[in-house]
Amino acid sequence: MKPWRPEGFTETVEKPCLEILRGNGRNGVIAVLESERNETVAVSEQLVQDVVKEIIARLQIDAGPGGSRGVFKDMNTAIEAAKQAQKKVQAMSMDQREKIISIIRRKTKENAEVLARMGVQETGMGNVGHKILKHHLVAERTPGTEDITTTAWSGDRGLTLVEMGPFGVIGAITPCTNPSETIICNTIGMLAGGNTVVFNPHPQAIMTSIFAIHMLNEASMEAGGPETIACTVENPTLETGNVMMKHKDISLLVATGGPGVVTAVLSSGKRGIGAGAGNPPVLVDETADIRKAAEDIVNGCTFDNNLPCIAEKEIVAVESVAEELMYYMVSEQGCYQADKEEVDKLTGLALTQKGLNRKCVGRSAKALLGMIGVDVPDNIRCIVFEGEKEHPLISEELMMPILGIVRAKDFDDAVEKAVWLEHGNRHSAHIHSKNVDHITQYAKAIDTAILVKNAPSYAALGFGGEGYCTFTIASRTGEGLTSASAFTKRRRCVMSDSLCIR
Ligand code: NAD
Predict the structure, then answer these.
(1) Which residues line ligand 1 (CB under 6 A)?
(2) Distance in angstroms (rounded) separating the CA atoms of residues 244 and 199
(3) Which atom of ligand 1 lies nearest, measured to the CA of 242?
(4) 9, 216, 375, 493 - which has most CB atoms within 10 Å?
(5) 285 C-alpha vs ligand 1 centroid, how far in Å?
(6) Is residue 230 within 8 Å of 200, Cβ to Cβ?
(7) What is the Cα–Cα distance from 21 to 1, expressed in whole angstroms?
(8) Protein residue with its CA nearest to atom 21 in ligand 1
(9) 371: burial class by Cβ within 10 Å (0-12, 13-18, 19+)?
(10) How far is the CA of 394 from the centre of ligand 1 (A)?
(11) Containing H/E element for 298?
(12) Average pLDDT by consecutive 10-residue portion of the chain (502 residues)?
């Protein structure tokens, strides 16, 4: 069957900036990306709207309970389809699973720009150029079947193996901040482990999620696999999520999102992986290269308009370097230093009685300033101000390029303030320091799943840092950066008194 493509779609050409993913570059990703973004014209806004219309038309044609390439009207039907597909996946060789994964990788790169533009258009959040990079990162750095390993003991009493087996059908809930990135990343890992998956995506990102799910199932079919390795419903709601959480055929739940969804999954009575909220502080001490720290922090903070849960959300700087840091951020890194009146206006704008103003989440610094009547040039990419740690724009997880700087009288005070600001999420924290003892003290005190030293936060995902990529960081339940092995169960297989050939 011919894989579906929107009419007029041009395959995205590999861009030089993607060298960063292959380890040929390091910092400064953002600068390259910004120029990159202006050159990116392969997929127009109009084309993205046409893609959405096409998805809606396809869903209407396939409106029957049989569904369309993994998309169903009813959650129970979606789970049944994933269950049937899982029987086929479990019977596959690892090579066959890997073949599907390699096609998913290729298709993700081919569709990176469509997915990026759809995500921004549908959610109103983020930056197209950065989202393109995130899709390439997922395609290239998400572990596949190589992550499924066997442990063996052999000796006088025979041979014992511990193998990683599938859970079966996994129920996954995904956020609107990285909608297709999370769906593709989860599916690669879950499939490598022999599972299939049913998603209850964020309703605000449903078209982007459906496009990704169609793409995943097309990859499976192209490799001779089933049509429903990843399933969902046309209209995900809290109710469809509840059906999924209670369903007898779902044996593992994976929640990527804020505290509400993680708590819901962990209260379900089923095994759950909880990838929850963060509020990552970045600490800068007197031994840091301050100019580089300013560059790294602003690059990390502004990546995809601060949507990643790992991104720098506030700075704690020791007193002696705070001014110098602010100087470099403002004079060299495109930061706008907001005065008290502007900070008050931003606070009223970003934080409403009901919590975060969703219209501000993932918006650029220029757009946010525009909303309070401040016009700035296009090169302004971050808003900075000094404040106490209790200031709501500092203590709340904003997911906007607004960086409050908290002064600390010395390193111990800085650690104490950063630990307070992390709120016990145990998610991510970062530090700029050349003092190994300081780094160790901070790492022990803050105890997070991720700690990036002397680099932008995105180094933790594989941009300019070693290691694999994930968009589900299980901070609450302790798996850390999830990969295929996290979606498997350990099984011991014992042969007594034989097969030891030493
Ligand atoms: P969100 O919590 O509003 O939504 C996430 C998902 O959970 C959505 O699909 C939503 O429909 C669903 N949901 C929300 N409350 C629910 C409930 N009570 N029961 C069932 N489902 C529920 O989050 P968002 O705005 O989409 O994403 C941003 C949040 O997610 C931030 O807090 C960010 O830190 C976090 N996040 C964490 C990770 C990680 O890997 N740890 C990754 C991305 C985002």
Answers:
(1) 173-178, 201-202, 238, 241, 256-258, 260-261, 264, 275-278, 309, 397, 471-473, 475
(2) 9
(3) 20
(4) 216
(5) 33
(6) no
(7) 32
(8) 261
(9) middle
(10) 20
(11) helix 290-302
(12) 34 37 38 40 68 74 68 97 98 98 98 96 96 97 98 96 98 98 98 98 97 97 97 98 98 97 96 97 98 98 98 98 98 98 98 94 98 97 98 97 98 98 98 98 98 97 94 95 98 95 87
Show the tokens assigned to 60. 């209407």
From 309, 356, 425, 473, mutation site for ligand 1 pocket: most ligand atoms within 8 A of C-beta: 309
DSSP assignment, residue 358? T
CB-based contact 408:316 (threshold 8 Å): yes
CA–CA gap between residue 98 and residue 92 (Å, rounded):
10
Q: pTM score, two decimals?
A: 0.91
The single residue listed with the structure tokens 């169960």 is 489
Q: Minimal CA–CA distance to 338: which of 311, 358, 366?
A: 366
23 CA from centroid of ligand 1 (Å): 31
Pair of tokens at residue 96 = 């066959």
CA distance linking residue 170 with residue 252, whole number of Å: 5
Compute the distance between CA of residue 61 and CA of residue 56 in angstroms, rounded to an integer: 9
Residue 8 main-chain phi, psi, to 5 deg:
80, 5
Residue to mutate (ligand 1; options 261, 268, 363, 472; most atoms within 8 A of CB): 261
Task: Find, among 201, 235, 183, 230, the residue nearest to 59 by Cα.
Answer: 235
Mutational test site, ligand 1, from 178, 182, 233, 256, max ligand atoms within 8 Å of CB: 256
Closest CA to 315 of 288, 341, 344: 288
What is the total residue count of the chain? 502
If you measure from the C-alpha of residue 176 to the centroid of ligand 1, how many angstroms do you get, rounded to a whole number? Answer: 7
Expressed in percent and rounded to 5, the helix, strand and coil fractions of the chain are: 45, 20, 35
CA of 439 to the centre of ligand 1 (A): 31
* Helix residue ranges per DSSP H, 92-157: 94-110, 112-123, 128-141
**Cα 253 to the center of its chain, rounded Å:** 17
Alpha-carbon distance of 237 to 240, in angstroms, equals 5
- Distance, in Å, from the CA atom of 99 to the CA atom of 86, rounded to the nearest integer, reads 16
CA-proximal residue: ligand 1, atom 35 (nearest): 257
Residue 176, phi then psi, degrees to nearest 5? -90, -10
Encode pLDDT of 322-345 as tens digits.
999 999 999 999 999 999 999 999
Which is it for strands 151-155 and 158-166: parallel, antiparallel or unpaired? Answer: antiparallel
pLDDT (0 to 100) of residue 13: 30
